[in-house]
Design a protein that fits this description.
The complex is a heterodimer of chains A (317) and B (65). Chain A is built from 13 helices and 9 strands. Chain A has 317 residues and is of the alpha+beta class. In chain A, a hairpin with a 2-residue loop joins strand 1 and strand 2. The longest helix of chain A is centred in the C-terminal third of the chain and has 40 residues. Helix content of chain B is 38%, strand content 0%. The longest helix of chain B is centred in the middle third of the chain and has 15 residues. The chains are: A alpha+beta (317), B mainly alpha (65).
Chain lengths: 317, 65
């Protein structure tokens, strides 16, 4: 250990535990002191923490690999896919698009049961209900006592049933860690939540410009790309930009587009929630919170056969 | 227009291992808000509030041992 003065900062140099030199410094700012830390030559706090932290795989990435260890049945989606694409650390839960087969459902239930997972109120993980657009939900606590929530659909919203095979074929990632491709992920993120729309803007940047223009939520990118690439676009925001209207008009048209998508998503949810009400009520009374997963599954199926319509009149997608 | 924070945008510079460790750190910290989280983040029940989700059950934020 040695102390070194550089400018107004005193640095304590220490061994880097195999991860490069770690430095802790005190910057003297008049009467105040500011603590500084670097590792591996980096000063940004998130990077420093990442360099110093013990290796620990993302539990949702690891679960995806477990689900797919006997064949590709599950694509990581939504927030964890956003982590995979390095857009944001924004999701505490994992959700997957699952192959709509009894074998895929059995495999996922088996993996989750091995982790001590329990059913949360939701549809049974069974193709009869997944095919109608329903979702299944589970929860367990990992070895660090952190809450792990796992959600599954086989008919993701805004993806045509005929596109599901192509969705699996277009998945990104290596080996068993397979992730929904950026363009379809954008469709999944067109939800009622405001926070999904900045992410759509960032995901769009991963696409070629002519495709980016179909999806981007960034008004500046719409202004930039519309003139060379926006001919025939169905988007009012793109047409406004092509017509040379002001940025304010483009922003307003974009806000209308986002509001319409949010309302459509909200309306879709309400139909499912209304149809599920009697089922969820009985689910809560019949399935103990600590029931082992397969026991919970058996009860959920028996209740669903009486009270949960496999499909809704207006369709699930 | 920059829509995300500097920390978010810095993720692109990380190695795979750094990304996993950064998420793991964030996930540790994010446990502190478990009780305040909506019951569902995905799926067709995402519009349900806490009371509609729990019914007569209490919130289950603690590990079941």
């Amino acid at each position: 250990m040695r102390l070194t003065n550089v400018g107004d900062t005193t640095w304590l140099n220490g061994p880097g535990q195999g991860k490069g030199t770690v430095q802790i410094g005190v910057q003297h700012l008049g009467a105040e002191k500011r603590w500084l830390m670097t590792a591996g030559g980096r000063t940004d706090p998130l990077r420093v923490a990442a360099i110093l932290r013990q290796d620990m795989p993302n539990v949702y990435f690891a679960l995806t690999e477990e689900f797919n260890s006997e064949g590709l049945i599950a694509l990581l989606a939504s927030g964890q896919a956003v982590v995979f694409y390095r857009i944001a650390l924004m999701s505490k839960d994992g959700d997957w698009v699952l192959r709509e087969t009894a074998g895929a459902c059995r495999r996922v239930r088996s993996v989750l049961a091995d982790h001590g997972a329990r059913y949360r109120p939701g549809a049974p993980l069974d193709p009869r209900w997944l095919a109608g657009g329903w979702s299944s939900h589970f929860e367990f606590f990992d070895e660090k006592k952190r809450r792990i929530r796992c959600d599954f659909v086989s008919r993701p919203p805004r993806i045509a049933p005929g596109d599901l095979d192509a969705m699996f074929a277009a998945a990104r990632g290596d080996g068993r860690l397979r992730v929904v491709d950026p363009q379809r992920l954008i469709r999944l993120k067109q939800t009622q939540r405001a926070k999904d729309y900045p992410v759509i803007g960032e995901l769009s940047r991963l696409l070629p410009p002519e495709i980016e223009l179909r999806w981007t939520t960034d008004p500046d990118r719409i202004m930039e790309l519309s003139s060379p690439l926006g001919q025939g676009s169905p988007r009012a925001s793109v047409r406004a930009a092509r017509d040379g209207l002001s940025r304010e008009v483009v922003v307003m048209e974009l806000a209308r587009e986002i509001d319409r998508m949010q309302r459509e998503d909200r309306d879709r949810m309400r139909r499912y929630e209304a149809a599920a009400r009697p089922y969820l009520e009985e689910f809560r009374t019949r399935i103990r919170e600590d029931a082992p997963l397969e026991e919970g599954h058996g009860v959920a199926v028996s209740v669903a056969e009486r009270l949960l319509p496999p499909t809704l009149d207006e369709g699930g997608s | 227009m920059q829509m995300l924070s500097e920390d978010d945008l810095d993720l692109k510079q990380m190695t795979d291992e750094e990304l996993e460790r950064a998420w793991d750190l964030w996930f540790d910290l994010a446990q502190s808000t478990n009780d305040a989280d909506p019951p569902y983040a995905h799926g067709v029940f995402a519009g349900l509030g806490r009371e509609e989700h729990s019914g007569t059950r209490g919130a289950s934020s603690e590990p079941r041992l």
